[in-house]
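Dock iron/sulfur cluster; give full complex structure.
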Amino acid sequence: MEVLRLKYEKNEILKKDKAIEVCFKCSTCSKFCPITQNVKKYNLENSFVTHLFETEKEVALNDVWMCCACEKCLITCPQDTNPTDAFTNLKEISYREGHAPETVYRLVDQLLQEGTVYALKFTNLARKRAGMKGIEKNEKSVEEINKLAEKTGLKGKEGGK
Ligand code: SF4
Ligand code: SF4
């Protein structure tokens, strides 16, 4: 059985977990992966997991966002590889290089502005309709989130592509 060959950014993708290097494309995880099971272009022989590692970098950086991080691949893999972790790293690269979906950049922008992923204006309208008290922006939390975002490289990219 062939061992998986990463085509790009190998060191960066594997920086947190090198276990993916022992993936031998057995497709066990793909029987449970919701993407392989539900997206027409994938099947057990050409699964979402192996496609992401063996396609061109540009394609992988766009397609990785289909992964919903359900961890079914992590739980079912007989080799203890960790595609979920590797895909989280791939999402980080994708985000940094401007390939993430626009929605992701908008959510980050919102988070850094108000500390919540939904605009407080709309949240408070819904709360008012339900007879609930409105929520106020927590300046200290926003400050801390922005500090974290600076340290992790999240900040400065929220404008998107
Ligand atoms: S974590 Fe991603 S790759 Fe793994 S099973 Fe879930 S959707 Fe598929
Ligand atoms: S179950 Fe593990 S070894 Fe098999 S294809 Fe999935 S990640 Fe690779």
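Observed: DSSP finds nine helices and no strands in the chain.
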